[in-house]
Amino acid sequence: MTARPAAELWKTVSSERRIAAPASFVYEVIADFDTHHTKMLPPAFRDLRVVAGGVGAGTVITFDIVNGANVRHCRSEITEPEPGRVLVEEDRGNGTRTTFSVAPDGEGCLVRIDSAFRTSRGFRGIVEAIIGPPVLRRLLAEELARLDAYARSQR
């Protein structure tokens, strides 16, 4: 895990949704960057490429996040602290860490996405801290809706 500077520079945004598909299959969709993961991504995530691996821990991916004219390039390493239940994407360059948690819930499952990111210092950081969380929360909610639709279409 990457060491993080002062806590006040970090923001965490979360979103969760009940998915109408078995937890094991939903986790498989999240963990399979070769075949499934791209199907659940909103259009703001572009050009996802698998650099190493492709499924689960050890996978390395690159992708761009587009927000208006702003494009941020990311390179994330995948770990599975709890295989079949928790998958983490971590960009070691900027420290951004996104955690996908899947828990059985009846015939479906509950999926939660937590994304922690570092804000800039000064005025720019204040603006990022105010604007970033609602934008990211909408993006995560859209990702979960797309995951639900994709998982149901594959059953």
Residue stretches low in confidence (pLDDT < 50, at least 5 long) are 4-8
Class inferred from helices and paired strands:
alpha+beta
Chain-averaged pLDDT: 88
Helix/strand order: EHEEEEEEH
Overall helicity: 25-40%
Q: What's the total number of strands?
A: 7
CATH class: Alpha Beta
> Major sheet: order of its strands?
1-7-6-5-4-3-2
Please explain how this structure is put together:
By secondary structure, this protein is an alpha+beta fold. It has one domain: Alpha-D-Glucose-1,6-Bisphosphate, Chain A, domain 4 (2-Layer Sandwich). Helix content is 27%, strand content 42%. The protein has 2 helices and 7 strands, in the order βαββββββα. A 7-stranded antiparallel sheet has the order 1-7-6-5-4-3-2, covered by helices on one side. Strand 6 (97-105) and strand 7 form a beta hairpin. The radius of gyration is 15 Å and the shape is globular. The model is unreliable at 4-8 (pLDDT under 50).
Short characterization:
With 155 residues, the protein is an alpha+beta fold.
